Amino acid sequence: MITNFQEREIKNFLSKKNLNAVILNEIYDHFVIQISELMKENLSFQEAFLKTKVVWQYELEMVNADALSFKKIARIEKTILKSRFRNIIFSSIAFSLIGLGVFLFLNDYFYIMQIGLALLSLSMLLYNFAFKKLKFREYIELSFHPLILKNFFIGCILFFIVGYFSQNIHFWEFEIGKVFGVYGMLVQIQLLYFRSKKVNVLI
Fold it and tell me: Is 0.70 topped by the overall pTM?
């Protein structure tokens, strides 16, 4: 039987891993179950705790959150983050392709779409500020978010390619530039949305 003091010891160990609250609670439950099972085999709490930590050592190892981030997070959370970022990217691409279709066939509505996304992005930002879900320092950090930086690098490459092959000094006015702008706004909106829900997206 695990005592209250031992439960606190487990929580203190896991809290040092800077885990998201949901993940922390799930891993804590796993620790308690595994330690309890090992103690039934006549192991002391410290022996069972040490054995459980060894089992979880790889998943709880602190690693860089992203190639473009200096933040350290547990490997298990990095795996979840990568999946979350993939979903953000894919949904943004899908909506951007719809935006491209609107630009090509319903040009007037494309500008309405741009204005709508800009207002939505501003609303999400104001909501996070108003309810103190986002500090100004964190908003500045958002500009250097790994997904935003990757978008910047990809945008530079696309603009260079389009400018080189089009030989047009106004190449940024092409559809690709406007659609990429929509893509960038969609990524930012989703990051702000997840932040408002206290879901870890490295902000």
Answer: yes
Hey, what are 203's tokens?
Answer: 């902000």
CA angle 187, 188, 194 (to 5 degrees): 90
Distance between CA 20 and CA 147 in Å, rounded?
A: 19
Element holding 172 (H helix, E strand) = none
- What is the predicted pLDDT for the residue at 68? 80
Kindly indicate the confidence band of residue 1, based on its pLDDT and cuts at 50, 70 and 90.
confident
CB 151 within 8 A of CB 142: no
d(CA 40, CA 50): 15
Measured in residues, the chain has a length of: 203
Q: Is the dihedral of CA 19, 80, 131, 185 positive or negative?
A: positive
Q: Are 188 and 121 in contact (CB under 8 A)?
A: yes
- Whole-angstrom distance, CA of residue 127 vs CA of residue 36: 44
List 158's β-bridge partners, or say none. Answer: none
Asked if 65 and 202 touch (Cβ cutoff 8 Å), the reply is yes
Count of other CB atoms within 10 angstroms of residue 75? 14
Q: What residues form DSSP beta bridges with 64? A: 72
Taking only Cα atoms into account, the Rg of the chain, rounded to an integer number of angstroms, comes to: 23
Question: pLDDT-based confidence at 63, cuts 50/70/90?
Answer: very high
